[in-house]
């Protein structure tokens, strides 16, 4: 990834992860890729003892990528990110598609970066993100819907509340402001769909064998 996909905008210095298509690098970053800052930050925290230098490099990159993901939100009139952005040497970052589907990836990374660094910046950004969603995406019935165009003064909604809005986006925003003992990241890991799974202290086969032996002896 570092060698083939990592790029920097010559306009504003935004660091982003590009795409590869038919062997060519495409200067485009989807909101879907904004899970990566959290992944790098979590790895730097949990594996620091194995390679401190790599951990420092991964955390620094995580912060840079998170800043780019946050810029996807802060550049919009609504404060809500588009589906993906592109980069060029004249405009820097610009919207590739203007709709928003209430995606969770940036919220996930803000949550993990807060847990790892305790930098209040990530809570401030998360709160601003929530307020923007609440202002523009809430519907009178109490649910939320995606936006057809995040650049408009009064954007139309898409009449759909994705399941991941509840299962992931709001979960990560809640955890961003919750105490650390709510899902301790040294004891739990999230799947790609934000399902928490307890981290085992030993391999499953060994654990099952030990439990069987304990039951048999009792």
Automatic annotation (TrEMBL):
Gene3D superfamilies on file: 1.50.10.10
GO terms under cellular component: endoplasmic reticulum; membrane
Cofactor: Ca(2+)
Protein EC: 3.2.1.-
Disulfide bonds: 34-69
Enzyme category, top tier: hydrolase
Keyword line: Calcium, Disulfide bond, Glycosidase, Hydrolase, Metal-binding
Signal peptide range in chain numbering: none
Pathway annotation from the record: Protein modification; protein glycosylation
KW NAD (keyword) present: no
Binding site for Ca(2+): 192
One annotated GO molecular function: mannosyl-oligosaccharide 1,2-alpha-mannosidase activity
Entry superkingdom: Eukaryota
GO BP term (any one): carbohydrate metabolic process
Homology family: Belongs to the glycosyl hydrolase 47 family.
Protein name, entry field: alpha-1,2-Mannosidase
Gene source species: Diacronema lutheri (Unicellular marine alga)
């Amino acid at each position: 990834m570092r060698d083939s996909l990592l790029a920097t905008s010559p306009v504003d210095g935004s660091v982003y992860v590009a795409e590869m298509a038919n062997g060519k690098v495409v200067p485009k970053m989807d909101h879907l890729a904004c899970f990566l800052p959290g992944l790098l930050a979590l790895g730097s925290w949990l594996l620091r003892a194995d390679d401190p230098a790599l951990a420092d490099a991964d955390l620094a990159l995580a912060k840079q990528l998170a800043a780019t993901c946050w810029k996807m939100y802060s550049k919009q009139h609504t404060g809500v990110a588009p589906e993906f952005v592109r980069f060029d040497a004249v405009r820097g970052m610009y919207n590739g598609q203007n709709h928003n589907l209430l995606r969770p990836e940036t919220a996930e990374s803000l949550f993990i970066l807060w847990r790892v660094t305790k930098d209040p910046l990530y809570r401030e950004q998360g709160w601003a993100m929530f307020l923007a969603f609440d202002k523009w995406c809430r519907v009178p019935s109490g649910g939320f819907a995606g936006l057809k165009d995040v650049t408009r003064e009064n954007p139309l909604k898409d009449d759909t509340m994705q399941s991941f809005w509840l299962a992931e986006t709001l979960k990560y925003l809640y955890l961003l402001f919750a105490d650390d003992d709510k899902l301790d990241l040294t004891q739990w890991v999230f799947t790609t769909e934000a399902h928490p799974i307890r981290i085992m202290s030993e391999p499953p086969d060994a654990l099952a064998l030990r439990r069987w032996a304990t039951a048999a002896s009792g």
